[in-house]
Amino acid sequence: MKPRPFKEMNKILTTPLDKPEPECGDLPAYVSGDQVISCWRLGFWDRMNAVIFGKIWLGVLGKKSQPPVRLDCCRTIFRRPPKGQGLANITRGKEIP
After folding, report:
1. Strand locations in 14-74, DSSP E?
2. Interatomic CA distance for residues 48 and 94, integer angstroms
3. pLDDT over threshold 60, residue 72
4. Which of 69, 91, 93, 68 is nearest to 8 (CA)?
């Protein structure tokens, strides 16, 4: 899987200078006051594995606990706000308790 740019992105998160790991790279993202959203493109074999096994694994670096996260499989999680209103609003996803 690879991160990909998307229309609603408003920031590119860069690799920390103290952790220049080969698999780390820039991350196009939509950043608001309470969340960061990124879009990932599944390669051919990623898609085949998802169809065959029906699983997507999520790994988050951290020492204490799992922060709240969300995974979605859809065209977009943004909807266009009515004219005159602010940035895109989130329409999909559920919080995991």
Report:
1. 27-31, 36-37, 39-41
2. 25
3. yes
4. 91
